[in-house]
């Protein structure tokens, strides 16, 4: 079985209240190393068999048409991942 990961983030000009809330909470927890936090969405798409270029293309289309709102979000990653969640070298954005 193959797996494709799709990551979607708010466009840079869009306010991110959840990311801002997390970013302001981190220093109160003693975690002060990060200067900003943005929160997005992550989808794991499982397929029967190996991930092919055609399947990555379908995932890209799903990301652009269904999984994201193109007015306020960017699709930042569409690629094959292994069982441990590591990106495969053959992935495509």
TrEMBL record:
It is an enzyme of class 6 (ligase). Gene3D superfamilies: Phosphoribosylformylglycinamidine synthase subunit PurS. It is found in: Cytoplasm. It catalyses: N(2)-formyl-N(1)-(5-phospho-beta-D-ribosyl)glycinamide + L-glutamine + ATP + H2O = 2-formamido-N(1)-(5-O-phospho-beta-D-ribosyl)acetamidine + L-glutamate + ADP + phosphate + H(+). InterPro entries: PurS (IPR003850), PurS-like_sf (IPR036604). Its EC number is 6.3.5.3. Pathway: Purine metabolism; IMP biosynthesis via de novo pathway; 5-amino-1-(5-phospho-D-ribosyl)imidazole from N(2)-formyl-N(1)-(5-phospho-D-ribosyl)glycinamide: step 1/2. Keywords: ATP-binding, Cytoplasm, Ligase, Nucleotide-binding, Purine biosynthesis. Its main location: cytoplasm. Part of the FGAM synthase complex composed of 1 PurL, 1 PurQ and 2 PurS subunits. Belongs to the PurS family. Part of the phosphoribosylformylglycinamidine synthase complex involved in the purines biosynthetic pathway. Catalyzes the ATP-dependent conversion of formylglycinamide ribonucleotide (FGAR) and glutamine to yield formylglycinamidine ribonucleotide (FGAM) and glutamate. The FGAM synthase complex is composed of three subunits. PurQ produces an ammonia molecule by converting glutamine to glutamate. PurL transfers the ammonia molecule to FGAR to form FGAM in an ATP-dependent manner. This is Phosphoribosylformylglycinamidine synthase subunit PurS. It comes from Schaalia naturae.
